[in-house]
Design a protein that fits this description.
The chain is α+β, with helices and mostly antiparallel strands and 355 residues long. It contains 9 helices and 16 strands. α2 crosses α6 (155-180) and α3 packs across α6. The model has no long low-confidence stretch (mean pLDDT 90).
Length: 355
């Protein structure tokens, strides 16, 4: 089926990369046709995801004053916490996105683009992996060290463990995608070295935000290369496939969802398009909330999300055969850090300066 999201088991390729071109083709096909792929990676432990979610629930449950100690607007909120009411979906103001919404008036609604204002979600950004030295980058603010909350001594260990597992999957899928697109195997991964990868859980207080179909994260694409999601404890994430079909995300146990971001679209000259998505308070989310309340569990919806990036000082431009495609002119060369800064400005993060 065109709207079926396939599950790809990465273990066969990991154990013998040269013998599994078919799996690489499948990954590439999924990313091209659907903008996403679901994978099973035996290296990734559900227990580490649970430890991560447990800790982030406790973090977001703190009062606002405690959390704001980790807010850094002077760094464009690219490390530490971003409070609710700050991040604005780009599609509320972007003419190209608004035109797309108008053209799809008879299709699945882009609900998040229809209401004004910023998202009601909190977010925590945690740097994952090696970072460039200040002398190695023109974008030092995008590569700042992580921020550790004072009351969570286990924070660095838990975040680094889960973040490292997630980025290892992103790198493997990136290598498989390159092979599947007939590019050199390291076409993407070599450009990811010392990139500002971000473990980026969102936190939404369902005790406060629980109106039917309320938008937690408005209709948008991600500005990074590949986004990876572990399984959350509350539903609500919806994605749009390349054919325009809107589907709820249901990640099987032990699996991970990867969705293409705008940097992937740039490097492939639009052959792979950035995947659109939104998060809402759905009926299934309401059911999960009632169950959590009855079991006296946390009522914060925490996402298990990591943004895999291209390095800030790498030139974004279509690679290989993608560079001579008719669409390549839509993706002029630009330093990745400059592109990211432009996108942050569009979603209001770059505009929030310390006063």
């Amino acid at each position: 089926m065109d709207d079926e999201i396939h599950v790809v088991d990465l273990s066969a390729f990991k154990n013998n990369p040269d013998a599994h071109l078919d799996l690489c083709r499948e990954v590439a096909k999924c990313l091209k046709n659907m903008g996403c792929v679901v994978v099973r990676d035996p290296r990734v432990s559900s227990a580490h995801n649970d430890a991560f979610l447990d800790m982030m629930e406790r973090y977001f449950e703190q009062d606002e004053a405690c959390k704001m100690a980790e807010a850094h607007p002077e760094l464009h909120y690219q490390v530490g916490v971003t409070p609710e009411g700050v991040e604005v979906p780009k599609c509320q103001t972007d003419p190209a996105c608004l035109e797309e919404i108008a053209a799809a008036a008879g299709a699945a609604p882009r609900a998040g683009a229809q209401r004004g204002g910023a998202d009601p979600k909190w977010r925590y950004f945690w740097r994952v992996g090696e970072r460039p030295l200040p002398s190695e980058t023109r974008f030092e603010e995008l590569n700042s060290p992580p921020v550790v909350p004072a009351n969570f001594p286990e924070f660095s260990t838990v975040m680094n463990q889960w973040g490292s597992m997630m980025i290892s999957t992103v790198e493997l899928v990136a290598e498989m995608a390159a092979i599947g697109f007939d590019l050199p195997h390291d076409s993407f991964t070599s450009r990811m070295k010392k990139a500002p990868h971000l473990l980026a859980p969102t936190g939404t207080d369902l005790g406060k935000h629980h109106k039917p179909n309320q938008i937690f994260a408005g209709y948008h694409y991600d500005l990074n290369f590949l986004t990876i999601h572990g399984k959350a404890r509350f539903p609500g994430l919806y994605i749009w496939l390349r054919n325009g079909i809107r589907v709820p995300v249901k990640i099987p146990d032990g699996c991970l969802l990867l969705q293409a971001g705008k940097q992937f679209e740039w490097l492939t000259g639009g052959h792979v398009m950035a995947g659109m998505h939104e998060v809402i308070f759905s009926e299934s989310c309401d059911s999960a909330l009632q169950k959590a309340r009855s079991e006296e569990r946390s009522c914060w919806r925490v996402s298990s999300t990591l943004f895999g990036h291209i390095a800030s000082d790498v030139l974004l431009e279509p690679l290989g055969e993608f560079g001579v495609s008719p669409a390549a002119d839509k993706y002029p060369p630009i330093l990745c850090g400059e592109y990211v800064q432009n996108e942050l400005d569009a979603i209001s993060l770059l505009r929030h300066k310390a006063v």
